[in-house]
Specification:
The chain is an alpha+beta fold and 140 residues long. It is 64% helix and 19% strand.
Length: 140
């Protein structure tokens, strides 16, 4: 039996050595895998940061373009003129008279309004118009 105990002990020691050796190999593989993951994560983080910077720069450009367009539109927008005709106790907005002339033209003619000329004659309580070369009259 002593021989068997010795053989079992020797086999157990060999098995323990084999496990230790295998553990060292696994530990080395794990360390290498960890390093690979770290490197990959670093590269991914760098790419993400670069992409985020590019996206932020693009967004900044878009916002600036929109602001510039808004500023241009504001500059380009004509000033709103308000002209009132006052006579004989009446107060009439010239814009309303022009719109009435256009409406009268459209009621009697086809086509888009391209040119508008309006002549006010308060003493006749009328506005005469020429739209696209067609003359007409509206009452004030």
């Amino acid at each position: 039996m002593a021989v068997k105990k010795e053989a079992v002990k020797e086999t157990a020691e060999k098995a323990v050595e084999a496990v230790k050796t295998e553990a060292k190999v696994v530990k080395a593989d794990a360390k290498a895998a960890t390093e690979t993951v770290k490197k990959t994560a670093k590269k991914a983080a760098a790419k993400t940061t670069t992409a985020a910077k590019k996206t932020a720069a693009a967004a900044k450009k878009t916002v600036k373009k929109a602001a510039d367009k808004k500023a241009e539109a504001k500059k380009a927008a004509p000033a709103k003129n308000v002209v009132q005709l006052q006579f004989a106790g009446k107060d009439l907005a010239v814009d309303a008279i022009v719109e009435a002339a256009k409406a009268d033209f459209k009621a009697n003619n086809k086509g888009a309004v391209k040119t508008v000329e309006v002549y006010l004659k308060p003493e006749e309580n009328a506005a005469y118009y020429v739209i696209n070369g067609v003359a007409g009259k509206v009452e004030l």
